[in-house]
Amino acid sequence: MEKILIVDFGSQYTQLIARAVREVGVFSEIIPVLALQESTVEALKNQGVIGVVLSGGPSSVYENKNEALGRQVTRLVGEVPILGICFGYQLLVSLLGGEVKQGLVREYGPANVKVDAPKGPFRTFLPGETLRVWMSHGDVIASLPDGFQPFAHSEFVPFAASGNPMLHAYGVQFHPEVWHTKEGSKILESFLLDICNASRDWQTEQILELLSKDIQARTKGREILLALSGGVDSSVMGVLLKRMVGERLHSFLVDTGLLREGEPESTLKLLEPLGLNVHVVDAKDKFMEALEGISDPELKRKRIGGLFIDLLREEARNIGFPELLAQGTLYPDVIESMPVVGPSDTIKSHHNVGGLPKDMPFELLEPFRMLFKDEVRRIGEALGIPEEVVWKEPFPGPGLAVRILGPVDEASVKTVRKADAIVMEEVSRSGIGRSLWQAFAVLLPVKSVGVKGDKRSYENTVVLRAVESRDGMTAGVAKLPYELLERIAHRIVNEVEGVNRVAYDITSKPPATIEWE
User: Fold this and answer.
1) Backbone Cα Rg of the chain
2) Is 181 helix (H, G, I), strand (E, B) or coil?
3) 10-residue mean pLDDT series, the chain (517 residues)
4) Catalytic amino acids?
5) In the prediction, which pLDDT does 433 show?
């Protein structure tokens, strides 16, 4: 299968490049730059590599360590098409004889770029056309290498894009992979289809075929324990495994007491027609005890992850102790939990990745580990799973514990669960639920003065969070109708005991995350 190799220099956006490439129908694989030294150019081509993207990153081309990085990159120039993004662009230009220096202005946010020459990845645009893009840099390119032509500029960046068509080497100072760059998909698609001549063979059928081969190779007649949450990922995983291994699959749903209102009952109702015989483990008291007095979000996740595995270990003893534990872990979970393929920072430990104990009694089976949610949803649709399961809103693995800022107890869980139910109900009733990535309530450890029934109140604050996103890696604030916001706030302060104030979070991701913890 053809692939685009994405060389990771530590950018938090690297995985968005991978997703954007796959969205065009081309398989992408991320590797750290030092891994290039393990393969020759011929070996990479034999593996199906038809192009290379150099990611952004926190480094500067002036750092000495980039000499080693340069030796790995330069041997690719002229051998396969290359697209450098942000730092990757600066490194490419520097290696080929151009000049990079500290910019007069550091740019972190939206900017306007004007097209100078519609060539290379910019061939679909018109001369003088203005593009709205997302910048994130301090250094700028002051002069281009021999053979490079300027394609676009901005107010502070004279060479916002350039390239050498003879070498098939191109670069952009901005980030075409983020949704803030409105024409970014066109630029990437032009690089992939016009310059790399990709055949778009990364489709749902091919993904399913690869998953099936992977599962068959890993299971080989072994019994499998599946940790179901009722969410999209584990549900699709369950149906796929059930069809492949039959009765060797044992599905468990752990009721942590941190689920949304009406769960796990609604989950069982959805999953029953899919042929999954789900056993519910009631562990509400154990999770409340484990979280008592814990406020730190990382510790919450690790406590939940550790107890989760302990409970599954107990259940496994009753069915012959299966060796494999299947989870619907996705690429974003892995990305945010640990720096797997590059020097990127850990954002937070997801309970089913970074929150798992080191002495795991199971071998993990995670076929979706390198997939994005939209890819899993397409698989679910191909398997004939009902829409209400496939398009269910994402819910954090640790549940409502990470929507309570501060200690978790029965009272705080009750408060945030009731507020969250009101949000879900009103958003669903408005008819805009499908257009949102998530909408939920967060309980803050903040009290304020209010008036209820002509009396002074001093009660809790709830924050409403609603975002739009394609992948969960970046997100924009959902511009909910004011009437809807007002209705939600009115119901929460009137129906949820102990709450007298509702705020609306209008921060995008980045700089914030979608969940508050």
Assistant:
1) 25
2) coil
3) 90 86 92 76 90 90 65 85 95 92 79 94 93 89 95 93 96 91 94 96 92 92 87 92 92 92 87 85 95 93 90 84 85 61 48 55 87 91 91 89 95 97 96 91 96 90 94 85 97 97 93 90
4) 86, 175, 177
5) 84
Looking at the fold, whether 179 and 270 belong to one and the same domain comes out as: no
The confidence score (pLDDT) of residue 349 equals 47
Residue 397 lies in a domain: no
How wide is the angle at C-alpha 146 spanned by C-alphas 139 and 7, nearest 5°?
Answer: 55
**Does residue 262 sit within a domain?**
yes
User: What is the predicted pLDDT for the residue at 470?
Assistant: 77
**311 and 338 co-located in one domain:** yes
Cα 356 from Cα 349, distance rounded (Å): 9
- Structure confidence at residue 357 (pLDDT): 60
CATH number, domain containing residue 242:
3.40.50.620
- Domain span at residue 439? 404-504
pLDDT tens per residue, range 237-271: 999 999 999 999 999 999 999 999 998 888 888 88
The domain spanning residue 461 has which CATH number?
3.30.300.10
Question: Does residue 122 fall inside a structural domain?
Answer: yes
Q: What is the DSSP string of 235-298?
A: HHHHHHHHHHHGGGEEEEEEE-S-SPTTTTHHHHHHHGGGT--EEEEE-HHHHHHHTTT---HH
Residues 45-98 have pLDDT tens digits of 989 999 999 999 888 887 655 556 667 788 889 999 999 999 999 999 999 999
- Quick one: which of 18, 36, 24, 45 has its CA closest to 121? 24
Pair 20, 134 in one domain: yes
Eight-class DSSP state of 471: S
Unique residue bearing structure tokens 């990771």:
8
317, two tokens: 């003893």
CA-to-CA separations, 438 to 20, 57, 445, 466, 496, in angstroms, rounded: 21, 29, 22, 6, 21
pLDDT at 358 (0 to 100): 66
- Asked whether 330 and 180 are in contact (CB, 8 A), the reply is no
What order do you get walking across the sheet with 99-115 strand by strand? 27-32, 3-8, 49-54, 82-85, 169-172, 161-164, 149-154, 99-115, 130-143
One DSSP character per residue, 425-455 reads HHHHHHT-GGG-SEEEEEEEEEEEEEEETTE
Token digits of residue 151: 């394609």
Q: Is residue 513 part of a domain?
A: no
Query: Checking DSSP bridges between strand 476-477 and strand 455-468, what pairing results, if any?
Result: antiparallel
Same domain, yes or no: 223 and 170 = no
